[in-house]
Design goal:
Blueprint lengths: L2 H10 L13 H16 L13 H7 L12 E11 L3 E9 L5 H14 L3 E12 L2 E3 L3 H13 L1 H9 L6 E10 L2 E9 L6 H19 L2 E4 L12 H6 L2 E10 L1 H8 L3 H18 L4 E2 L3 H12 L6 H4 L2 E7 L5 E10 L11 H10 L10 H27 L2 H8 L2
Parallel strand pairs: 1-3, 9-10
Antiparallel strand pairs: 1-2, 3-6, 3-8, 4-6, 4-7, 5-6, 8-11, 10-11
Helix pairs in contact: 1-2, 4-9, 4-14, 6-7, 10-14, 11-14
């Protein structure tokens, strides 16, 4: 079939977008879909067609009906000094964003952290959760089923871990609502973010539970995971990696770089991040976690929808007896990986290589942990800078100067 004939058939609906690969190779299919879309929408799509991405890889693992790329400006902040269990050194932070002033803000926060001796970062908890919902015959059967699950934990662990050599079942949490049984399986998934691994493992476990307990499988995700949603459960129990990053900001550095005082910054954190967030019934007791996490996720090929979970967490600031400021961020649910998903795509891989965390670590999981510690420090830098700008009254001025 000639190219124009195939385009005409796409436009007429005789060939579906997803069927174009049956007639031509992946790169040509991308071009013809795009050209047909230009006709259908009366739009010129020149910029979508300029990319270096591996088309076959993207179509196989990352997207369907591929037509091109969305280009997002990428800047770099740092380096920032991180002192963690896995990360120990100076790290540059690639940030993909269209928000002017964000990279400059994080960069300034990195400067403050470095002048104050670096950020202490560590992961306190690591576990990707998947929580199906099953239906019992009645509430009594639901209770019996929980007893069976508790008796069968070794068997469930064996089944789950048979699906991947990198996956480990770390915990099982259960709830009953009427005759509905919610089972939250928590896994360690090596250097992968792990959502697909957790899903596949849980599916195998549920087959066993159905056959042995009489429970009926309703949905592989019962929303108690809680995946890509704001939730008190993830705020309290965590999902993915729980990260804490802290720095002691000296009064001299605060006054020199941020042009404000430790007292002003502590007051803002208390009234804005704590009281204001509580008044709004927000789980984001912070200034801008999501800003920094989103920019890092887009740059490094993470699942951007997990920003909603990463946006939850706490910023704290407390004065020391010496008049300095202990400043910290706690991110309960940070989902990151250095293998799988979008991490192998060209620019995303390069961004991870800038940080020094691309690929599988030795031992397994060490690269993802290192990455999480560095993300924690980047989020800390963003919080320090923004709270400092608010204290100095410079926020609007910075956006006028850098975002217009």
């Amino acid at each position: 079939m000639e190219e124009q004939e195939l385009i005409d058939k796409i436009v007429k609906g005789e060939v579906k977008f997803h069927e174009v690969e049956k007639h031509v190779d992946a790169r040509k299919a991308t071009e013809l879909r795009r050209r047909a879309l230009e006709v259908l929408t009366e739009t010129q799509l020149h910029n979508l067609s300029v990319f270096s991405i591996d088309v076959e890889r993207a179509m196989k693992a990352n997207t369907e009906n591929f037509i091109g790329v969305a280009q997002v400006p990428m800047g770099v902040a740092g380096p920032v000094q991180v002192k963690g269990d896995s990360a120990n050194g100076l790290y540059h932070i690639p940030l993909a964003t269209t928000e002017g002033a964000l990279v400059a803000s994080v960069n300034r926060g990195c400067t403050v952290i470095n002048k104050s001796g670096g950020a202490i970062s560590f992961v306190t908890q690591d576990g990707m959760a998947r929580a199906p919902v099953l239906k019992a015959r009645n509430a009594s059967h639901a209770r019996e089923s929980l007893n069976f699950i508790n008796r069968s934990k070794d068997k469930l662990k064996e089944i789950a871990e048979s699906t991947s050599r990198f996956l480990k079942l770390e915990g099982i949490q259960t709830w009953i609502v009427g005759r509905n049984v919610f089972v939250r399986f928590v896994y360690k998934t090596g250097d992968a973010m792990g959502m697909n691994m957790a899903t596949i493992a849980t599916d195998e476990v549920i087959k066993f539970l159905e056959s042995e307990s009489g429970l009926k499988h309703v949905a592989l995700s019962g929303n108690v995971c809680a995946d890509k949603k704001s939730s008190a459960l993830n705020l309290i129990m965590g999902r993915g990696k729980t990260v804490i990053s802290e720095v002691v900001l000296t009064r001299d550095v605060i006054e020199e770089v941020l042009k404000t005082s430790p007292e002003a910054m502590a007051d803002i954190v208390y009234r804005k991040c704590l009281i204001g967030s509580a008044l709004a019934a927000s789980y984001g007791f912070n200034a801008q976690f999501a800003n920094v996490i989103a920019a890092i996720f887009i740059a490094t090929g993470q699942d951007a929808a997990h920003v909603v979970e990463g946006s939850q967490g706490f910023t704290t600031a407390e004065l020391t007896e010496e008049g300095d400021l202990i400043f910290s961020v706690t991110i309960p649910s940070l989902q990151v990986g250095t293998v799988g998903g979008g991490t192998a795509l060209g620019t995303q891989r390069e961004a991870l290589e800038i940080i020094g965390v691309y690929g599988a670590g030795e031992p397994p999981g060490s690269n993802a942990t290192k990455f999480a510690e560095i993300v924690g420090a980047a989020v800390l830098a963003g919080e320090v800078s923004l709270i400092g700008a608010l204290g100095a009254g410079h926020l609007a001025e910075a956006h006028v100067r850098l975002n217009r």
